[in-house]
Amino acid sequence: MTDNTEQLEDMTREWNYHPDLPLDNPSVFKWPPNPAYLAGWLARNWLTLSERVMMAIAAVAFWFFFYPAIETAQTFAFGWIFQVWLVNFVMIFVVAGGLHWYFYMRKGQGKKLKFERRDQGTNNALWNFKDQVHDNMFWSLGSGVFQLTFFQVISMWLMANGYVPMITFAENPVWFLAFLVIIPMWSAFHFYWVHRLLHQPFLYKRVHALHHRNVNIGPWSGFSMHPIEHFIYLTTLCIHWILPSHPIHLYFHIIFQGPGAAMTHTGYEDLLIKDKRKLALGTFYHQLHHRYYECNYGNQEMPWDRWFGTFHDGSSEATSETRARKKRMYS
Q: Which residues span the membrane (predicted)?
């Protein structure tokens, strides 16, 4: 039996499901550049009903029907601020709660494409309320929704008063569409570096460890963080204080950071409908991070982990390297 076969058998025993290993490199920043690959990536993400297109459609709907008009935000007032908070609360509750209900309560997909074998944790003093889901809901709907609303309110106030540059689709259609594509890429870049910061021992023990209680992640885990981590994580939204944008861009970014975190932490790779993959959810790339900690800090579409030596490809060798790196960090 070859070493590769033995390693695959070990991974099959360790996980309920995993994609083909070792993980490949889906980064759009491949060198030399591959125009055909880049065109395919753009088509998959923006010319089909992908999760990003669904978020963009939701952002337009929120702009039209749910969030207050941007002109309302010229002065701080309880009414419109409460409206923003309420919309964000319901949004997080519906997305994370709906995914949890479908996958973990209704068990609508069983364990098909589920990475971990275990269910969510209960009767364990590790969690507030001795329950993983209740703990995650507390931090997501409390600190998470509050701070998401805080950054959004400040951004809307800046836009409403002309303190930051704004655009419309009619004025600049190219930048309007390009910035929608750029926002997830910026978010991935920002996330990698603040995530590495949060894994420095001082901050990890006092702040980020709360999120990493979730080794076996679920939809409510994605936005469950210490208040300091929520603040650091959500500084990604400050890009709208610098670059020209529209409220739709801001709301797309809000959805990407909030409900998007619930989707990527579902614990399943894809949503199946009639046994066909219809919606991308979690990635084994990030699941490895929650299992082994000091690896895969970023997003699998971006090259940072590969460039800076923190990539875990799912192999036994990568696990050994990750454990050695963790030992060095905490020695």
A: 53-70, 82-104, 138-159, 174-194
- Is the pLDDT at 304 greater than 50? The verdict is yes
Query: Both tokens of residue 322?
Result: 């990750």
Distance CA 152, CA 149 (A): 5
The pTM of this model reads 0.95
- What pLDDT score does 12 carry? 67
Q: 136 burial class (0-12, 13-18, 19+ CB within 10 angstroms)?
A: buried
- Specify whether the CB–CB gap between 220 and 242 falls below 8 A: no
Question: What are the DSSP calls for 280-310, one per residue?
Answer: E---HHHHHHHHHSSS--S-TTSSHHHHTT-
- Whole-number Å distance between alpha carbons of 38 and 322: 30
**Cβ neighbour number for residue 287 with a 10 Å cutoff:** 25
Encoded amino acid at 137, one letter: M
Cα distance between residue 9 and residue 39, in whole Å:
36
The span from the CA of 294 to the CA of 291, in Å, is: 9
Chain CA centroid to CA 132, Å: 19
DSSP 222: T
pLDDT, position 53: 97
Tokens for 259, please give them: 């409900």
Please give the pLDDT value at position 30.
78
pLDDT grade, residue 256 (50/70/90)?
A: very high
Q: What are phi and psi of 24, to 5 degrees?
A: -85, -170
Q: Return d(Cα 152, Cα 249) in angstroms, integer.
A: 11
Residue type present at position 39: A
pLDDT at 1: 40
